[in-house]
Design goal:
The complex is a heterodimer of chains A (about 110) and B (about 120).
Chain A (H helix, E strand, L loop, with lengths): L4 E3 L2 E4 L5 E6 L6 E7 L6 E7 L2 E5 L6 E5 L5 E5 L8 E8 L8 E2 L3 E5 L1
Parallel strand pairs in A: 2-11
Antiparallel strand pairs in A: 1-3, 3-8, 4-5, 4-9, 5-6, 7-8, 9-10, 9-11
Chain B lengths: L2 E5 L2 E5 L4 E8 L5 E7 L5 E7 L5 E3 L5 E5 L4 E6 L8 E8 L10 E2 L3 E6 L1
Parallel strand pairs in B: 2-11
Antiparallel strand pairs in B: 1-3, 3-8, 4-5, 4-9, 6-7, 7-8, 9-10, 9-11
Classes of the chains: A mainly beta (about 110), B mainly beta (about 120).
Chain lengths: ~110, ~120
């Protein structure tokens, strides 16, 4: 049973560019959340998608946007990249608006130069 | 709003010694509490969770945690450390209410080092 799959695993972008990260949730899960983990910090909640809609959003600027597809997979888009956007981006999936914990992917390491 | 404080950014123990990682939370409503472990260059793995059932929660790899409402704590323990326990540990809180707010709020993490 596949867990949460994220792609790519690593990428390097230049300031001002745009990036798209992808996530396939665990089989049977329909909710996807995205987190940003800066070096040496705990993950910070970006937003959550359920039924193809953004249901909740953390304290992140509009440069961060997302999408959920009918098959429950999700994309995270970041526009006008800043050096400070360099981080590990984690995708977490769950069933419904579960408060019983989430299954995390291995993350995408984004480096902005 | 909920928050988590992990006391001690770095804990070092000897192999076979007791592991104690401290977590205190703040929440205006009954919380759900979690401990996650992160190995280098990997995602987060759930160790255990408290969801208002038994206050003593047993998790994977011999870890357990006790929910103490009076102390607003959810400390993680393991009787005997193993070299493979060396990793970063995150405590997280989630609250339910109004059909939203199931996001996880994490502490800053505690790096556990196990010495031979």
């Amino acid at each position: 049973d596949a867990g949460v799959t994220q792609s790519p695993t690593h990428l390097i972008k230049t300031r001002g560019q745009q990036v798209t990260l992808r996530c396939s949730p665990k089989s049977g899960h329909d909710t996807v959340s995205w987190y940003q983990q800066a070096l040496g910090q705990g993950p910070q909640f970006i937003f959550q998608y359920y039924e193809e809609e953004e249901r909740q959003r953390g304290n992140f600027p509009d440069r961060f946007s997302g999408h959920q597809f009918p098959n429950y997979s999700s994309e995270l888009n970041v526009n006008a990249l800043l050096l400070g956007d360099s981080a590990l981006y984690l995708c977490a999936s769950s069933f419904g608006r579960s408060f019983y914990g989430y299954t995390f992917g291995s993350g995408t390491r984004l480096t902005v130069v | 709003a909920q928050s988590v404080t992990q006391l001690g950014s770095h804990v070092s123990v000897s192999e076979g010694a007791l592991v104690l990682l401290r977590c205190n939370y703040s929440s205006s409503v009954p919380p759900y509490l979690f401990w996650y472990v992160q190995y280098p260059n990997q995602g987060l793995q759930l160790l255990l969770k408290y969801t208002s059932a038994a206050t003593l929660v047993k998790g994977i790899n011999g870890f357990e945690a006790e929910f103490k409402k009076s102390e607003t704590s959810f400390h993680l323990t393991k009787p005997s450390a193993h070299m493979s326990d060396a990793a970063e540990y995150f405590c997280a809180v989630s609250v339910a209410g109004g059909g939203s707010n199931y996001k996880l709020t994490f502490g800053k993490g505690t790096l556990l080092t196990v010495n031979p």
